[in-house]
Amino acid sequence: MVVATPIPLLRRGGNKKTAAFGVPTIDLSVDKSIASEMIVKACEDYGFFKVVSHGVPKKVIARMEREAADFFSRPVSQKGRAGPAAPFGYGCKNIGFNGDKGDLEYILLEANPVSLCQRAKTISNDPSTFSSVTNDYVSAVKKVACDILELVAEGLWIEDKSIFSKLISNSQNDSCFRVNHYPPFIAPNHHHDDQELIDNHWDPVSSVHEEELEEEPLHMMTSTVGSKSSRVGFGEHTDPQILTILRSNDVSGLQISSHDGFWIPVPPDPNEFFVFVGDSFQALTNGRFKSVRHRVMAMNSWKPRMSMMYFAAPALDTWITAPPQINSNITNNIYRPFKWGDFKQIVYSLRLADSRLDYFKNHHCPIMTPY
Ligand SMILES: C=C1C[C@]23C[C@@]1(O)CC[C@H]2[C@@]12CC[C@H](O)[C@@](C)(C(=O)O1)[C@H]2[C@@H]3C(=O)O
Ligand SMILES: O=C(O)CCC(=O)C(=O)O
Ligand SMILES: [Fe+2]
């Protein structure tokens, strides 16, 4: 049984806003009452945790990785046939519609079999294999997301264990799937002698030059290789959906933000999944769970980072508001109830780094609840 308590391990002095901690790790094979309590605690304290013994076969992961790697290895002229991302399809450096940029290329897909089947035709020379491999992967991680959401309901002592999972298992769910591919990055002052550090023991904490980052808002950074700004892979943001299930190869770069403003590097773990609380889960729990800010910094690596995210979202017409089992007095609602589809529209009108949930904070607006 793997039960790791999140313990701050290191905080360097001066004005370096970085820290390291033991990622809260939940073994999904342990007794439900233990796992559910740990998940609720991690969602409250960090909005982030790792799951192990998740039951997703290695083969399903390896096949998805191979299909994606094969796509990104193609010439730009071929990849471009699946783009530009609007928002679905192949994208390169441009994220969203409002000028955000990152040092990456990606494919963003709707996570349903019909759409995947259509999209696969522009992505692969063997579309039926691509869509069947992607469907298998998406179904497997969706199951992980549902298991986690049911454990959350249990941990919150809610009788209807499917209160959250049914939102994403609804046939009209709006979940999506993204594969990000970050090119290798070697810092301009990098020496070959450092190779051993890169391969094995490289310490991302000391390599994040925060004094440089503070000069320029992250979302303004471009991806010009060779300048200091080349290090932003995917700028800081929270995910708007309910839950995100991330898996990456063994290349580092992911960082999460602690409540006190430190960037915490997350060591990659290709066999396991990282789980992020999204904005919608924050609203569904009336702020009890926190959506976690995160980003990807291009780290010294000769190898590309490849990550896959399943963003679990409800149907567009689903009301997002805390159920009475969580908040019995609606006058205490932090957020106005909103439909996922309306929230998504706001999301796409804003920049990556914006705090979108603030737009739904209750000030003087009348409270309407669908419950
Ligand atoms: C700049 C943007 C890209 C994004 C939509 C947005 O306007 C703001 C949120 C971004 C984000 C972050 C999490 C996911 O990667 C994503 C697919 C999502 O749902 O919200 C992306 C959007 C995107 O890349 O299309
Ligand atoms: O690529 C990663 O590791 C994370 C990317 C991310 O946060 C996103 O696509 O929303
Ligand atoms: Fe994200």
UniProtKB/TrEMBL annotation:
<dbReference type="InterPro" id="IPR026992">
    <property type="entry name" value="DIOX_N"/>
</dbReference>
<dbReference type="InterPro" id="IPR005123">
    <property type="entry name" value="Oxoglu/Fe-dep_dioxygenase_dom"/>
</dbReference>
<comment type="similarity">
    <text>Belongs to the iron/ascorbate-dependent oxidoreductase family.</text>
</comment>
<keyword id="KW-0479">Metal-binding</keyword>
<dbReference type="Pfam" id="PF14226">
    <property type="entry name" value="DIOX_N"/>
</dbReference>
<dbReference type="InterPro" id="IPR044861">
    <property type="entry name" value="IPNS-like_FE2OG_OXY"/>
</dbReference>
<dbReference type="Pfam" id="PF03171">
    <property type="entry name" value="2OG-FeII_Oxy"/>
</dbReference>
<feature type="domain" description="Fe2OG dioxygenase">
    <location>
        <begin position="172"/>
        <end position="314"/>
    </location>
</feature>
<dbReference type="InterPro" id="IPR027443">
    <property type="entry name" value="IPNS-like_sf"/>
</dbReference>
<keyword id="KW-0560">Oxidoreductase</keyword>
<dbReference type="InterPro" id="IPR050231">
    <property type="entry name" value="Iron_ascorbate_oxido_reductase"/>
</dbReference>
<protein>
    <submittedName>
        <fullName>Gibberellin</fullName>
    </submittedName>
</protein>
<keyword id="KW-0847">Vitamin C</keyword>
<keyword id="KW-0408">Iron</keyword>
